[in-house]
Fold this protein.
Amino acid sequence: PVLEKVHLSMKGIENYKMIQLYDFAGRSFPITSIEKRSDHLEIDMAQLSAGHYVIRIVMEDSSRVVQIIKK
């Protein structure tokens, strides 16, 4: 579970094309803060309510969906 920040590691993730954040009801939320480092992203989720969320990361030739539980 996440309290404030999500740390995602994946080869080349810092070169993403698009990142989307949704709750399980399908509502989209703006991502206000992203810190990029080599093969690593840190996404601030402090302003969101507790619950289940999905982060969709679109790369140049692939995409990945990550489920997150926010405390």
